[in-house]
Amino acid sequence: MTPPVGDLLVGYDGSRDASAAIATGARLLPGRTARVVHVWAPPWADSALRHRVRRHASTLDQLTELMEHEGGEAALLVAADGVALARAAGWAGEPSAKRAYGDPGLVLARLAEEVRPAAVVVGSRGTSGVAAVLGSVSDFVVHHSPAPVLVVPPLLSRERAAASTGPVLVGDDGSAGAEHARATADRLLGDRTVVVSRAPGGSARAVAAALDTEAADHDAGVVVVGARGRSALRDLVVGSTAMAVLHHVHRPVLVVPTPS
């Protein structure tokens, strides 16, 4: 089997979907090391503890410092829960907490740019204490991460089981981006059987529906698509077809950015 390439960056917010993303991601990418990141913003969730912190501060500066400290420590505890799940699933892991000053998806994307993981892993329904401005956290990460992003939606039991041994279904539109996506899938996913889908033309939704049907027919473990188009922040392109696949295909989806 092809040896693992690099470490993984995992976004974890403590939700059921984020936990399921770790379990499914470990089936697709076994034997990895995962940096499990919880992105947080004040005030953190526990109102009773926030009240106690206020009693220990005599100035606004002290209150700010204590709130930041306690919020960060609480975020590390959440990340540690994610690490426990990762280890139970077969990954080595380390926790990390990141303070958000904007969209949490942007924080994860910037961290991906900094550490250059082999892939970013997120659930498709993840939430955070920071309101998403440009869509869900997973959408934002997909649009702006320089690394491939594995997005895990809610799955039925058969679909989860397929993540362990099912083939890799690669959407191919004949572009260089699709070819790069296939090569990246070969590198990341090892010796799995690869099925290339040349979906018929039409609307993005029609292409996504065709890929969803083919994924079910082959009992695919993951669907791989290339990203095309331009974003407002960088030369990363996520076209309408890739986004339709993310929202309408009932399998884990690996979105591979086209090299700048």
Automatic annotation (TrEMBL):
Protein name, entry field: Universal stress protein
Highest rank taxon of the organism: Bacteria
Protein family per UniProt: Belongs to the universal stress protein A family.
UniProt cross-references to InterPro entries, sorted A to Z: Rossmann-like_a/b/a_fold, Universal_stress_UspA, UspA
Domain spans labelled UspA: 8-153, 208-257
PANTHER family hit by this protein: STRESS RESPONSE PROTEIN NHAX, UNIVERSAL STRESS PROTEIN UP12
